[in-house]
Amino acid sequence: MAKITFIDPAGEQRTVQAEPGSTVMEAAIRNDIPGIDAECGGACSCATCHVYVDEQWTEKVGGPEPMEEDMLDFAYDVRPTSRLSCQIKITPELDGLVVSTPERQG
Amino acid sequence: MTETIKTDVVIVGAGPVGLFAVFELGLLDIRAHVVDILDRPGGQCAELYPEKPIYDIPALPVVTGQQLTDNLLEQIKPFQPTFHFSEMVTGLERLPDDRFLLSTNGGERFDTKVVVIAAGGGSFQPKRPPIPGVEAFEGKSVHYAVRRMEAFRGRHVLIVGGGDSALDWTLNLAPLAARVTLLHRRDAFRAAPDSVNKMRALVDAGVIDLTLGQAVELIGENGVLEAVRVKRDDGSTHEIAADDMLPFFGLTMKLGPIADWGLQLNENLVPVDTEKFETTTPGIFAIGDINAYPGKLKLILSGFHEAALMAQAAARRIDPERRIVFQYTTSSSNLQKKLGVA
Ligand SMILES: Cc1cc2nc3c(=O)[nH]c(=O)nc-3n(C[C@H](O)[C@H](O)[C@H](O)COP(=O)(O)OP(=O)(O)OC[C@H]3O[C@@H](n4cnc5c(N)ncnc54)[C@H](O)[C@@H]3O)c2cc1C
């Protein structure tokens, strides 16, 4: 299992256990993390599971693929650390990952 | 206004389920009119995930959203449905003789015996851009579609987005507007490469402006826009003067006018029985993602089944005297004749 911490815009932290092989979005939905809508269910077809990856983790997590970049065009307040959480696969190396949720989803 | 079309069935929605309903009705000799607000068939499959694989269509181990749509169109061809695209069904009224009058925003009218609501998650509509307070400017200075290009003559127009709509309107309005500025989050565009090249040529020639960043605030009063505040990647902001803004942030599904048709609704879904998939109003059926019943799964597969049973009940309503004989397409020469294969 890998630990993932979600920080909401008010600064509140929630840490959940996630299964390697699943996605950060799935971990959020399974644990009722507020601020992740995931309307399309993880098909990279909307932009409602947008998160900011903590600066310490951006290198390990990597950047978005072109298709994900296209979807990010529809998100709110996109930053260089923006990712769609349905496209971040959890690996043992991501144990401890910290992401923040935006003020609103697109 | 065009003449009212008299028919047996109107299907609201050309998603996969509406398309398959054409097939099931066709086997029972019923021809359908199909209306969709989109400019082409396929609903969510064509609009949201044309290139993504679907793995749970029976007997098709893998098929993309667009392939499924194309296959359905091929399958229903013998039944010659009449499509009415880019039309939203806005009105549904009961007529005295147990028929229904459907009307569209484009002025089309249908006098029909049966209505099949296959509206999925609702009509596709432009997505509101994620800018706080944008509602106040809608209709006056913020427009999601261009109805009349002339309205933008001599104006400072800010177009936001990186897809085909944004680029097409940038190119079309450039000769007319006082100045067109295209605003996009990044220097890469989803639009057709040809449009992107044309846009870049206009920028190089000094005819239009291209700005990279995200709109974060609209400045103006009483819905009249003066400028748009734009945030760059480094967090700094600046203002772009604009009379009008045209944001293109894709489409989203909204229930829309169906809410006003006097149907019973349950959390934006239309309750139906599971024998006929008929609503509480006899003659109005609901199939696919739009309906609700105990155990409902929002799957294409379920919608196909619903279409088959709905068609049986619709046929009985259209001709109560008719005896419907159960037949297989494999062995019935009668069905094969209809399919054009006998
Ligand atoms: C990313 C993604 C992946 C999916 N993957 C699968 C999968 O693997 N397997 C599966 O079975 N399902 C999948 N689905 C769900 C599947 O796409 C839906 O179940 C299916 O599209 C429902 O079909 P439908 O015909 O009922 O409605 P829709 O496809 O939603 O089509 C409804 C149509 O009706 C139109 N409409 C609505 N109201 C009006 C009106 N008033 N006037 C005019 N037009 C109107 C809309 O514009 C729309 O085109 C997926 C969905 C998404 C978003």
TrEMBL record, chain A:
Swiss-Prot/TrEMBL cofactor(s): [2Fe-2S] cluster
Domain 2Fe-2S ferredoxin-type: from-to ranges: 2-105
Entry-linked Gene3D superfamilies: 3.10.20.30
GO biological process, one term: P450-containing electron transport chain
Keywords: 2Fe-2S, Iron, Iron-sulfur, Metal-binding
Key word Metal-binding present: yes
CDD domains: fer2
GO molecular function per UniProt: 2 iron, 2 sulfur cluster binding; electron transfer activity; metal ion binding
UniProt xrefs under PANTHER family: FERREDOXIN-2, MITOCHONDRIAL, FERREDOXIN/ADRENODOXIN
Sequence similarity: Belongs to the adrenodoxin/putidaredoxin family.
Protein name: 2Fe-2S ferredoxin
Source organism of the structure: Hansschlegelia beijingensis
Organism classification: Bacteria, Pseudomonadati, Pseudomonadota, Alphaproteobacteria, Hyphomicrobiales
TrEMBL record, chain B:
Catalytic function, reaction form: 2 reduced [2Fe-2S]-[ferredoxin] + NADP(+) + H(+) = 2 oxidized [2Fe-2S]-[ferredoxin] + NADPH
Gene Ontology molecular function, alphabetical: ferredoxin-NADP+ reductase activity; flavin adenine dinucleotide binding; NADP binding
Cofactor binding, per record: Binds 1 FAD per subunit.
Superkingdom: Bacteria
InterPro entries xrefs: FAD/NAD-bd_sf, FAD/NAD-binding_dom, Fd--NADP_Rdtase_type_2, Ferredoxin-NADP_redctase_2
Entry binding sites for FAD: 36, 44, 49, 89, 124, 289, 330
Cofactor(s), by name: FAD
Domain annotation FAD/NAD(P)-binding: ranges: 8-294
UniProt keyword list: FAD, Flavoprotein, NADP, Oxidoreductase
EC numbers, comma separated: 1.18.1.2
PANTHER family: THIOREDOXIN REDUCTASE 1-RELATED-RELATED
Assembly and oligomerization: Homodimer.
HAMAP family tied to this protein: FENR2
Family to which this protein belongs: Belongs to the ferredoxin--NADP reductase type 2 family.
Protein name per its UniProtKB record: Ferredoxin--NADP reductase
Source species of the chain: Hansschlegelia beijingensis
